[in-house]
Design goal:
The complex is a heterotrimer. By secondary structure, chain A is an alpha+beta fold. Chain A has 10 helices and 18 strands. Chain B is globular. The chains are: A alpha+beta, B alpha/beta, C alpha/beta.
Chain lengths: ~425, ~325, ~325
């Protein structure tokens, strides 16, 4: 008896995913819980294990194809078992597939008709983010272009591509006015750029698409930012001492780890910064789960280290080393990305001196830190050279005011300048 | 309670006529049962076998302009007031030639031309309109009466009391005929009526009340004549209780589990209004056969007529909703 | 043109009909000497006498039912049900009898009966004396349902109801009785199913009935100051409905708000929303918004009552929602 394996929901809010790579081929034997395929969801790429043991009889979902949760992706059964599949593969036959094989499929039923509107929406989701990275893209949330019936009709009649129209209605819905504006705008804006123009089109990966959508949403929060510079002399001493104490082979503590630890302590002293903005309320947290912005090829993710206030710096270093490694290896789980209460983004290693970070909603604050640099400063009327680091705290002004933000940042500065205070 | 007026005027010929009409109703109802069981007829059918004397006795006492309202058990009233067997049977067959053009069915017979203001499938539903029709006769000073037929079960419903109260209050020319057959559908009187004497229902309204044996057409007719005269002369409405017995089930196909077979058998022997009148008139077997033949011929003709009738077009359903 | 109140307008239609037509008479509870619980029939007993201005017992079934009987016999009775809440007592007669006699008879008869009733919250009568139940009747084929919002419509639509050959539910609003307006002396027969546009506008069509017409007009004036142009569209008769004019208005404005005092859930506004989306989907630029009472029985305490029933502010907010930008 064969089992039809469907795409599982691997996290809250996951509606679909793309199979990046099948780890087994048709005919291979697979054990239960053995990795079966690599899946790209809008959050992470991960290996997904087989729910059953047996022989992979038939693959129903091609690599690179976006699949809705619950759809059949393969059939696993006993060797030689005949497979009857109710829903034949939707994906086009891969280029390298044997056409004869495709034709000999036992159930040559036509692919289930997908709603053209949904197709249009999905394409639009990709195209829009591409064409207008700075504009709000909530209108294409969930792969469905949001436009009022009137806007759709006008676009149809005036031959306007809705994917090129910025929606200004609720939830960025495209309304009639937007279509009128688009119609009045220069033609280049309303017409796709010809392919011959020496450009290259890169379809967005779902991670990139998610980043685009999340940041567009985040951008709607009224931001403000404040900066302070911390004298890092004692932090550097602390790090050196920690390095001395680090056993061979153990993760080496970094300035980020120190920053994570003292930030966590500072957050608990200023709970207004350790919070989520939830529309009509603000939720304060009693523990600091600090997210670290980690660069990945063509994107970035923010894995979370939990309960940082309760962990020692070496423990934090261990946790950090683990998630960074797993991030690079695409082995993050959805759990790694959830539950953050504050985010730190450090571009010091890129020689950035200072920068401003976009919020990571619903968190109300994000800290951007630059490189530690030797600077000439005046101390008690004397000229001195000190190692200093600039910190810029971005806040959601709906939840946080300047005074709260300043108090927090000053505490953080004190902790860096005198780490003992953080005990 | 007034004594039943003796009606000396009824001749033997008239009574034989009543018998012939009652026989027609009986054979018609039997045919309805037969055609329903054969699968010819749709819907929900209630026959009045055993209650023919009330329909004929009352309706023969009415004048041409008088109106009646009937109940779910309406065939006898319709035939008695003048609806033709053809029009009635055609209605049961859902034909355009039916008395309600196929829109009503067995429980919703209308024949305004003959004074049938509507049979009503809601128990007691037609009583208020009879009070209202009688009010209009009074307001327009027309010498007409409006008659409501209903069963003993209807005396438990609000419309009965509100209509009786209002009719008496305004002294409108209405006659409320209670066909007391002892059952509200399947429920015997003792389970649904707190009093034995149905005439007491009108006491609270101070309404003139007459009680008759509903199986005796002569007595019913005499009482109806008196009631009509009383009402039309402006004395107010009359409550006429006719004690009767339903010789068949509540509806066609009713297994009648709620009453003993013995009771039905005995009633058929002792309470059949047709047999009573035939005995009184001492109708010879030969004459009876002749009457039978005439009734059957009319009934068979009505079935023939109905079957050959015109089916309404489905879209006719959207007509007659508004005037 | 004389200016009279909504109450006087209703009375005027009845008085004029009774003066010219002996077939018209009125029945109801406390309508004679007392002149009706809302004073609508005041003075009519004196002019027409107790045969044509008939006080009835508290018997809603018989009031409506006897009206039906007299109507079938060719008269044109007007019956008053003191409060809309009490139409529930006559529901069987209205729904099973009045609405269906003509149909069940295959068109043999007519039921030219007018059932007047009134309701409306805002004076703390509690849960059984101020409901707005018009939606119950709009659901019944065979009935017509009228709900005027201004004196001239009250007079001319009641006149038209009396002379309509079908059973008509005529809803009056308690709080509108003192509202004044110009009404010419001569009654005019109005075709049912013809809306009145109280105010023209380009941005949003507010479909409103009864008291909410007035609230919507106030909202429109307020919104005009912000450059929002509101069309206030009053169907006047809920059944039949002037779909043509409704759709034309929505096609013009691309936005629609429905406002009535009855509870929103399964209310008449839901039907309007359905009709609009069926007939004008491709013209809608925003979701249709509904304004109505909250889904609660009417409470007694004035503060709670005011919370439950809709006001100008609710209309304003609904209009804004249709114009919202993110």
């Amino acid at each position: 008896m064969s089992t039809e394996v469907t795409l599982p929901r691997l996290g809250q809010g996951m509606e679909s995913g793309t199979i990046v790579r099948w780890l087994k081929a048709e005919g291979d034997t697979v054990a239960q819980d053995e990795p079966l395929y690599e899946l790209d969801t809008e959050k992470v790429t991960q290996e997904v294990e087989s729910p059953v043991a047996g022989v992979l009889l038939r693959i129903l979902a091609g690599e690179g194809e976006e699949i809705e949760v619950g759809r059949a992706i393969c059939v696993i059964g006993e060797a030689g078992e005949e497979v009857t599949v109710e829903a034949p593969p939707v994906s086009p036959v891969p280029a390298d597939a044997d056409p004869a094989l495709a034709e000999s499929a036992e159930v040559p039923a036509p692919a289930p008709a997908q709603e053209p509107e949904r197709d249009e929406g999905r394409e639009a989701a990709a195209a829009k983010a591409d064409a207008e990275p700075a504009s709000s893209t909530a209108a294409d949330e969930g792969g469905r272009l949001k436009a009022s019936p009137l806007a759709r009709r006008m676009a149809r009649e005036r031959d306007i591509d809705l994917r090129r129209v910025v929606g200004t209605g609720p939830d960025s819905r495209i309304v009639a006015e937007d279509v009128e504006r688009a119609a009045a705008a220069p033609a280049w804006e309303a017409k796709p750029v010809p392919v011959t123009a020496g450009s290259e089109v890169l379809p967005l990966t779902s991670v990139r698409r998610t980043i685009a959508r999340r940041l567009s949403e985040a951008w709607q929060a009224p931001h403000f930012a404040i900066s302070m510079t911390a004298d890092m002399t004692r932090a550097i001493e602390l790090r050196e001492r920690l390095l001395e104490l680090t056993p061979e082979g153990a993760p080496r503590p970094t300035y980020s780890d120190i920053l994570t630890k003292v930030s966590a302590v500072a957050l608990l002293r200023h709970p207004g910064m350790n919070a989520h903005y939830e529309g009509d309320q603000v939720r304060l947290f009693s523990t600091a789960n600090v997210g670290l912005a980690v660069a990945i090829p063509n994107g970035l993710v923010v894995p979370v280290i939990r309960h940082c206030e309760a962990q020692s710096i070496p423990e934090i270093a261990g946790a950090r080393a683990d998630i960074v490694a797993r991030t690079r290896e695409n082995r993050l789980t959805p759990d790694d990305l959830e539950g953050g209460t504050f985010t730190i983004s450090n571009l010091g290693m890129f020689e950035v001196e200072r920068f401003f970070a976009v919020l990571n909603p619903p968190q109300v604050g994000i800290l951007a830190t630059g490189a530690i640099q030797e600077q000439v400063v005046a101390i008690d009327g004397e000229v001195a050279v000190r190692s200093r680091m600039e910190m810029t705290l971005s806040c959601d002004h709906r939840a946080v005011d300047g005074a709260t933000a300043s108090d927090f940042l000053r505490t953080l500065k004190q902790f860096l300048e005198d780490p003992g205070l953080a005990l | 309670m007034a004594p039943v007026a003796q009606n000396q005027a009824l001749t033997r010929e008239q009574l034989v006529g009543f018998l012939q009409e009652m026989l027609l109703i009986r054979r018609f109802e039997e045919k309805v049962e037969e055609r329903f069981r054969a699968g010819d007829l749709a819907g929900f059918l209630h026959v009045a076998i055993g209650q023919e004397a009330i329909a004929i006795g009352v309706c023969r006492a009415l004048e041409a302009d008088d109106v009646i309202a009937s109940t779910h058990r309406a065939h006898a009233h319709a035939l008695a007031i003048g609806t033709t067997p053809n029009a009635l049977m055609a209605e049961l067959y859902g034909k355009v030639e039916g008395c309600s053009r196929g829109y009503g069915g067995s429980m919703h017979l209308y024949d305004l031309e003959h004074g049938l203001m509507g049979a009503n499938a809601v128990v007691g539903g037609g009583l208020p309109a009879i009070t209202g029709a009688a009010l209009s006769f009074k307001l327009r000073a027309e010498p007409r009466v409006a008659v409501a037929f209903f069963g003993d079960g209807a005396t438990n419903i609000g419309t009965f009391h509100e209509s009786m109260n209002l009719a008496q209050l305004w002294k409108v020319p209405a006659v409320f005929v209670c066909e007391n057959n002892g059952y509200a559908e399947s429920t015997p009187a003792w389970q649904q009526l707190p009093i034995d004497d149905m005439s007491k229902r009108a006491l609270a309204y101070g309404m003139h009340t007459i009680v008759v044996d509903g199986q005796d057409v002569e007595e019913v007719h005499g009482a109806a004549l008196e009631a009509r005269r009383y009402a039309v002369e402006g004395n107010g409405p009359v409550y006429l209780v006719a004690n009767t017995y339903r010789l068949t089930g509540h509806y066609v196909g009713d297994p009648q589990v709620y009453r003993p077979r013995e009771e039905i058998r005995e009633a058929r022997q002792t309470q059949d209004p047709l047999e009573k009148l035939r005995a009184t008139l001492d109708v010879s077997d030969g004459d009876w056969e002749e009457m039978e033949r005439a009734a059957v011929q009319v009934v068979e003709g009505s079935v023939e007529f109905a079957k050959n009738g015109t089916d309404p077009r489905p879209e006719d359903a959207m007509k007659n909703i508004y005037a | 043109m004389p200016e009279i109140s909504y109450r006087e307008a209703v009375r005027d239609a009845m008085v004029q009909a009774m003066r010219s037509d002996p077939d018209v008479f009125i029945m109801g509870e406390d309508i004679a000497e007392m002149g009706g619980s809302m004073g609508v029939t005041q003075g009519m007993l004196q002019e027409f006498g107790s045969e044509r201005v008939r006080n009835t017992p508290i018997s809603e079934m018989a009031i409506v039912g006897s009206g039906i009987g007299a109507a079938i016999q060719g008269m044109r009775p007007i019956v008053e049900i003191m409060y809309q809440d009490f139409t529930t007592l006559a529901m069987e007669q209205i729904v099973n009898q009045a609405a269906k006699h003509r149909y069940m008879s295959g068109g043999q008869l007519k039921v030219p009966l007018t059932i007047r009733t009134q309701g409306g919250a805002g004076w703390s009568p509690g849960a059984q004396h101020a409901q707005q139940l018009e939606a119950w009747f709009v659901h019944v084929p065979g009935l017509k349902v009228v709900f005027p919002s201004i004196p001239i419509d009250a007079r001319d639509l009641l006149w038209s109801s009396i002379y309509d050959d079908n059973p008509v539910l005529f809803f009056e609003h308690r709080l509108l009785y003192p509202v004044k307006g110009e009404v010419p002396e001569e009654p005019k027969s109005l075709e049912f199913g013809k809306a009145r546009v109280h105010r023209e506008g380009d941005d949003v069509t507010v479909v409103a009935t009864g008291r909410l017409v007035h609230e919507s007009l106030k909202a429109a004036t307020e919104l005009e100051a912000e450059g929002i142009s509101v069309e206030v569209w009053d169907p006047r008769t809920l059944l039949p409905l002037d779909e043509e004019s409704l759709i034309a208005s929505v096609k013009k404005t691309s936005r629609c708000v429905v406002a009535h005092e009855a509870v929103t859930r399964m209310g008449w506004g839901a039907e309007i929303a359905a009709v609009v989306q069926e007939e004008a989907f491709d013209y809608l630029d925003a979701p249709i918004q509904r304004v109505g009472s909250k889904f609660a029985p009417l409470p007694f305490a004035p503060v709670m009552e005011q919370y439950v029933v809709p006001h100008k502010e609710d209309v304003t907010a609904a209009v804004r929602r249709t114009l919202e930008r993110s």
